[in-house]
Specification:
Blueprint (H helix, E strand, L loop, with lengths): L12 H4 L24 H18 L2 H9 L4 H24 L7 H15 L7 H11 L11 H19 L3 E3 H23 L5 H28 L9 E3 L2 H17 L4
Antiparallel strand pairs: 1-2
Helix pairs in contact: 2-4, 2-8, 4-5, 4-8, 5-6, 7-8, 7-10, 8-9, 9-10
Length: 264
């Protein structure tokens, strides 16, 4: 039986504008164009609930298992990657706004093994990773105990400090390069939900700028992962030279990150 379109659930904003905010907004904001949004407890809670809503909208258990069990194909790969993308947004929000500054264990494990499975999808999908995904799928816990503003600022300050420290190095192991990329991606994910609601504005611009850095580093890391899976390199022992413009671009937008997080 066909569903009446009026009865279908509307896509959360983070889902419907997912691609839109990955387009550069036509503005060149200054620091005064940004507001301290994350010092406000309600803004942090809103960002989390919107990320949770988007993940729950995309992740439908039966659909997920159907794609997971199918032979490798383009449609299933896109869906599995999409689930993980929205899961990672939610995971980043846990780091910033949860009182423990940790993601729930089962969600973290689910996303980890899904990432491992996706990395090998077009080469040799891992049955072991598939089993781990299924083991965690029914016990994903999305509960949270929100941190206060001081705790949020402390965590955000720590993330920025870690990124700055890593960017002082020119060459480092692939795993360390991946850690740097994850830190930058977490900042992009933090701003993403509110950027959707500020489409075309300064928060959209900030998210876009962070996301572009993350995506550039992600493409480079993916190539190294694929080479490792094919046996062309020893992933654990490989070194990466970071492009100088990565540090320059991050330092350029850092004052804006500090402003929206209430750090300066």
């Amino acid at each position: 039986m066909k569903q009446n379109l009026e009865t279908l659930p509307a896509s959360p904003a983070l889902v419907s504008r997912f691609l839109d905010i990955r387009e550069r907004p036509e503005i060149n904001p200054k620091k005064d164009d940004f507001k301290d949004v994350f010092s406000d407890e309600q803004s942090r809670k809103h960002a989390f609930w919107e990320a949770k809503k988007a993940f729950e909208f995309i992740f439908e258990r039966a659909t997920f298992l159907r794609h997971l069990e199918q032979k490798p194909n383009k449609e299933s790969f896109i869906y599995l990657k999409r689930v993980r993308s929205f899961g990672l947004i939610l995971k980043s929000l846990y780091f910033f706004v949860n009182s423990s500054h940790k993601c729930t264990e089962k969600l973290s494990k689910f996303l980890y093994f899904l990432g491992q499975y996706n990395d090998s999808y077009n080469i040799a999908p891992s049955e072991e990773n598939k089993k781990e995904i299924i083991n965690n799928i029914d016990v994903i816990d999305l509960s949270i105990n929100f941190c206060n503003t001081s705790e949020f600022r402390g965590y955000a300050t720590g993330v920025l400090s870690e990124i700055e420290k890593l960017l002082q190095e020119k060459i480092f192991p692939v795993k360390k390069f991946h850690v740097l990329r994850i830190k930058i991606r977490s900042l992009a994910n933090l701003t993403q939900t509110l950027a959707v609601e500020n489409y075309g504005g300064s928060l959209h611009w900030l998210f876009y700028s962070l996301d572009m850095l993350s995506r550039e580093m992600g493409k480079h890391h993916k190539k190294l992962v694929q080479k490792g899976l094919r046996g062309e390199i020893n992933y654990d022992k490989s070194m990466v030279e970071i492009e100088p413009h990565i540090a320059l671009e991050f330092n350029r937008i850092k004052p804006f990150i500090e402003k929206v997080c209430g750090l300066k």
